[in-house]
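Let us work through a complete example step by step.
Step 1: write down the sequence.
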Amino acid sequence: MRYDLVIFDNDGVLVDSEPLSNRLLAAYLTELGHPTTYEESLRDYMGGAMHRVHETVLARTGRKLPEDFDEEFHRRVFALFERELRAVAGVPEVLEELAAESIATCVASSGSHERIRVGHRKTGLDRFFDEGRIFSSQDVGRGKPAPDLFLHAADRMGVAPARCAVVEDSPLGVRAAVAAGMDVYGFTAMTPAGQLSEATRLFADMRELTEVLDRRQP
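Step 2: predict the structure and record it as tokens.
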């Protein structure tokens, strides 16, 4: 394999959290007087950090979200995760395959460190990622689609961007990886392929990832 490091997005790639969190986000925004459908939440916020929600609502309505918005949203999300969150099908097997091939892996997510950890504990993925291999938009000045988070992860892992592969399921994440000078593999299990057209390659079943990575020639 031509890569020394595979960088995984978290939500929708490692854990099946996007349907849960976007359903909840749409309902909460609507509750606060900002009518939002599930589909609109996916379109506008999937793959982005929380500041994107604040900035979008403010730009559209001229009104700020409550100061405790993030805290209350995460309280609701974590409670829902404890009840319903699952790992994306095939993820444990893929992580074991990459480890067997001595390919390093890490996580680079727009979500907070706490959100990542809650999801990993619930799904059992915490056995694959220690603290030194988890990176959040909290760690950098700009979140996706800026390249900062992926470049930060590569730097901390000691791998050149050209030797990294990113696995992403959001247009924002794909744009960030491209801007970082990394190959990016678009996961289309939930996102229409046309929205990830900038990706190096597309795939729909996580169990195919190692084969897809091997097919990419230098």
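Step 3: interpret the result. Strands lie at 5-8, 104-109, 134-136, 164-168, 183-187, 201-203.
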